[in-house]
């Protein structure tokens, strides 16, 4: 195969040189070049079989690494309890579902519940409202920029969307509290967000045009902000129509188990007491804020965003402009470390009984039937005879790999030397995909495709913790890797 490729390269160079001598523009595809392609294919004895296979079958199915699938093992020797698998359906709220999956077990443990879910619709309502407000404030700040300004065009391309990440979730629950799913269930629009997003973006672009016209006509900032408030009222109305009214107060009902002690002196000469467990239905009234305070008020963990981007400077702190969803919050910082550090801290989190929120490029090397994330589960190179292998740094730098999905890690399976070889992942694609909604992520896939983990600051080594004190490198709001981390879907 290597000799064949070397021969092909030399003939292509000769063909191109010949074409240039005939007055062709350098770089053009010529008849001579096409003839050389055909000549080389004619000398490949496997090409007919390849064409027959790939024109009548799905290339991905033909490329399944059956040996890898057959060796699949979904067992773990260190595992935390997860929650009921929930489907994000036709929405890009993976970051929100993953956030709920981190904190929901706290309520289940405290109240000894077998099943519990937080309302995604409640959080999504305020996420849309906050994002709309932030966008309009950004447009006010940019009202004097040229319409072709790069950053301005980026915002106008997609004023708001479903995407987000951990700190978006944390900011929302701390500001607005949380409610059970029963207090604000999913709606048709919250489960399929495309139409509502289109309408919101139309309103936001319309408002931007008017803000810029007001600025050009000499209107002061107070008048512009008054206009913004009116349009935000329209957006609130649209969100009420799509998601329903967020509850100001709600009744939460759950079963509790109590022990009743009765005397058995009449029948038991030892005069011991028998304890009988009975179920009692508890009914309590909460506001979103008091519910959060009671069940999550001690959620004081300070998480640090650790990324692995080998295309950027290692052991460097980055901060991205306008990387938040709530206007008054600070922008987000990311510490870039080697992938070995992300693995080390993920395992430390599991050992510390903490569920790990992470971001990745989920579209690479996943096999849904078995719920596998494994490098080379699809052997396209073996099927097509083409080398597709690239480095992680090149994939990120040249836009072939990017953060696009958030999930949580619940478990690790270690080899005899104590090093994790695979991880258990809780996804938000429903129980019908993967292994009942759970996936097995092999360490090779972690190496290639995990791009961020949220780590408890107390678990950082002194050397890595010291890196957080350095002056951050500021990255523009259009930078693709960091922007992708805040728009996970």
Oligomer kind? single chain
**Unreliable runs, pLDDT <50, ≥5 residues?**
263-267
- Do you know the CATH architecture of the largest domain? Alpha-Beta Complex
Number of domains: 3
Note the overall shape: globular
> Can you tell me the CATH topology of the largest domain?
Cathepsin B, Chain A
Number of strands: 14
Strand content: 15-25%
Q: Which range best describes the helical content: under 10%, 10-25%, 25-40%, 40-55%, 55-70% or over 70%?
A: 40-55%
Euclidean distance between termini CA atoms: 41 Å
Structural class: alpha+beta
Using the coordinates above, name the CATH class of the largest domain.
Answer: Alpha Beta
| Rg, nearest Å | 28 Å
Mean pLDDT: 91
Question: How would you explain this protein's 3D organization?
Answer:
The chain has 489 residues and is of the alpha+beta class. It has three domains: 62 residues, no CATH class; 359 residues, Alpha-Beta Complex (Cathepsin B, Chain A), CATH 3.90.70.10; 35 residues, no CATH class. The protein is 43% helix and 17% strand. It contains 19 helices and 14 strands. Strands 1, 4, 5, 6, 7, 8, 9, 10, 11, 12, 13 and 14 form a twelve-stranded mixed β-sheet that branches. A two-stranded antiparallel sheet has the order 2-3. Strand 8 and strand 9 form a beta hairpin. The radius of gyration is 28 Å and the shape is globular. 34% of the residues are buried. About 1% of the residues have low confidence.
């Amino acid at each position: 195969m290597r000799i064949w490729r070397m021969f092909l390269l030399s003939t292509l160079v000769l063909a191109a040189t010949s074409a240039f001598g005939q007055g062709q523009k350098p770089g053009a595809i010529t008849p001579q070049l096409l003839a050389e392609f055909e000549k080389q294919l004619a000398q490949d004895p496997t090409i007919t079989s390849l064409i027959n296979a790939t024109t009548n079958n799905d290339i991905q199915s033909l490329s399944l690494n059956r040996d890898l699938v057959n060796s699949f093992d979904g067992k773990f020797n260190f595992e935390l309890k997860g929650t009921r698998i929930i489907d994000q359906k036709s929405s890009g709220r993976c970051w929100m579902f993953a956030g709920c999956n981190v904190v929901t077990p706290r309520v289940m443990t405290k109240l000894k519940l077998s099943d519990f879910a937080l309302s995604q619709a409640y959080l999504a309502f305020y996420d849309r409202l906050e994002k709309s407000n932030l966008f309009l404030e950004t447009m006010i700040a940019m009202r004097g920029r040229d319409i072709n300004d790069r950053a301005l065009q980026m915002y106008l391309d997609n004023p708001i969307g479903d995407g987000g990440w951990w700190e978006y979730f944390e900011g929302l629950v701390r500001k607005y509290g949380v409610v059970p799913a029963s207090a604000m269930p999913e709606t048709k629009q919250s489960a399929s967000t495309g139409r509502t997003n289109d309408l919101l973006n139309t309103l936001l672009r319309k408002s931007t045009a008017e803000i810029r016209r007001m600025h050009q006509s000499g209107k002061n900032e107070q008048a512009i902000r008054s206009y913004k408030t009116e349009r935000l009222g329209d957006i609130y109305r649209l969100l009420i129509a799509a998601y329903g009214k967020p509850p100001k107060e709600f009744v939460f009902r759950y079963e509790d188990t109590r022990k009743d002690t009765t005397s058995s002196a009449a029948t038991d000469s030892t005069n011991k007491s028998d304890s009988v467990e009975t179920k009692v239905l508890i009914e309590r009234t909460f506001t979103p804020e008091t519910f959060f305070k009671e069940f999550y008020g001690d959620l004081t963990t300070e998480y640090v965003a650790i990324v692995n981007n080998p295309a950027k400077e290692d052991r460097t702190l980055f901060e991205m402009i306008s990387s938040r969803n709530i206007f008054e919050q600070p922008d987000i910082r990311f510490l870039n470390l080697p992938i070995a550090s992300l693995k080390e801290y993920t395992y430390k989190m599991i050992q510390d009984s903490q569920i790990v929120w992470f971001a990745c490029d989920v579209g690479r090397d996943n096999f849904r039937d078995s719920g596998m994330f494994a490098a080379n589960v699809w052997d396209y190179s073996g099927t097509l005879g083409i080398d597709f292998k690239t480095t992680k740094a090149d994939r990120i730098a040249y836009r072939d790999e990017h953060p696009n999905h958030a999930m949580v890690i619940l478990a690790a399976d270690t080899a005899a030397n104590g090093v994790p070889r695979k991880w258990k992942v809780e996804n938000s694609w429903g129980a019908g995909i993967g292994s009942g909604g759970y996936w097995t992520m092999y360490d090779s896939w972690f190496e290639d495709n995990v791009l961020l983990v949220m780590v408890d600051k107390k678990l950082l080594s002194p050397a890595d913790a010291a890196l957080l004190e350095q002056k951050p490198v500021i990255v523009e709001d259009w930078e693709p890797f960091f922007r992708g981390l805040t728009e996970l879907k």
